Amino acid sequence: MRPAIMEQVEALRGINSVRIKEASEAGKKVVGMYCVFSPQEIALAADAIAVTLCGTKQEPIEFAEKELPRNLCPLIKSSYGFAITDKCPYFYFSDVLLAETTCDGKKKMYELMGKIKPMHIMNLPQTSQGEDALEFWKKEMVHFKTFLENQFGLEITEEKLREAIKLVNRERKAMRRLHQLNAHKPAPMTGMDMMLAQWLKGFNVDREAGIEIIEKLIEEVEQQMEKGIYAFEEKAPRILLTGCPIGSGSEKVVKILEESGASVVALENCTGYKGLDVLVDEEKEPIIALAEKYLSTPCSCMTPNRGRLDLIERLAKEYQVDGVVDLTWQACHTYNIESFTVKNFVKDTLNLSFLQIETDYSDSDEGQIKVRVEAFLETIEQGKNTQDAVAATLE
């Protein structure tokens, strides 16, 4: 049985669209962001609204392809398509944009997008390892802070930064508690609902209200668990999804997995647990603490990226998963190449089944993906049967 409060969570789509318009018209500044590397706390400390920008739907891609190459990542094309068609209210009402150099495709797309609205670009180091990388990233935090101060004509104080850090940490803790409910076997929430709740948080205009809804959702799910109500049966294959970010409009792999009988219990990707895993240290000097937290993000744009394997291992054990599915958007070269490393780690070190799915936002390959997913789940089932037979023999 689906938690009743999920209706309120879904209603946030429409509510936030109205709220961002009202806030902008009331003179509130808006900072639009795309990436989990974006330090939203600095925007909040500038008394602005920090929102995620649209980029997870197929519809605007055809408009983007009039200016961008077709053989480009769908996330990039969708983001740009939303920007040039004014169909994303969060982009429309953004006063400034924050971009980041996570991949070459986004860097070049941002050159075009920067002609539409004022934009600041944070340059990521190539690695997250070492003091030089941290010092470089700390300077980028300061550059962004100075940019907002100049744009909005104000001073971002240390006190304001500390307040923002505490607020966003509270949000992360609530989302992390929600995600961790699915460590229970069987899972109390579907992967689809978990994805939606985590994705929608980026559009919350009122952070406090967003935290409150998530806490109510957690309470309701826990009450259902006490009554023995779960989203799946205990025998359902438990899947960890890793790879590229997803959202409403690009959730087809999660949907196909669960329609095929699997329980997607953990979402390791950027729109899932990855950004929740590490909190900002509230005791340290704010800029240093922010630099440390965001640089720890185990993204495939970093080399090396051992942190992703460590996170997959922790989640796989905590959530008792039976298999790992690695979702790669077409033309996302860093995730596509890294998938080979992830596959070997999952199969050889974790001794789990592995499937990589390379796709885009369209529904043209759904039939093919479904066939592959069903074969993958059958392999997991056969492995379980073999283990049960061996255990029975030993008894």
Protein described:
There is one protein chain. With 395 residues, this protein is of the alpha/beta class. It is 53% helix and 11% strand. It has a four-stranded parallel sheet with strand order 2-1-3-4, sandwiched between helices. β5 (238-243), α11 (252-259) and β6 (263-267) form a beta-alpha-beta unit. α1 (6-25) runs parallel beside α9, α4 (74-85) packs parallel to α6 (104-113) and α7 packs across α12 (286-295). The chain starts with 5 loop residues before the first helix and ends with a helix.
Supply the key terms.
395 residues; alpha/beta; 4-stranded parallel beta sheet; 15 helices; 8 strands; globular
In short:
By secondary structure, the chain is an alpha/beta fold. Helix content is 53%, strand content 11%. The mean pLDDT is 96.
Describe the secondary-structure layout:
Layout: H1 6-25, E1 29-33, H2 40-45, E2 48-52, H3 61-64, H4 74-85, H5 89-92, E3 96-100, H6 104-113, E4 119-122, H7 131-152, H8 158-180, H9 191-200, H10 207-226, E5 238-243, H11 252-259, E6 263-267, H12 286-295, H13 306-318, E7 323-329, H14 333-349, E8 353-359, H15 366-394
Parallel strand pairs: 1-2, 1-3, 3-4, 5-6, 5-7, 7-8
Helix pairs in contact: 1-9, 4-6, 7-12, 8-10, 11-15
Helix content: 40-55%
Broad shape: globular
The number of distinct β-strands equals 8
Report the span from N to C terminus.
37 Å
| Beta content | 5-15%
Summed up, the helix count is 15
Biggest beta sheet attributes: 4 strands, parallel
Rounded mean pLDDT score: 96
User: Order of strands side by side in the largest beta sheet?
Assistant: 2-1-3-4
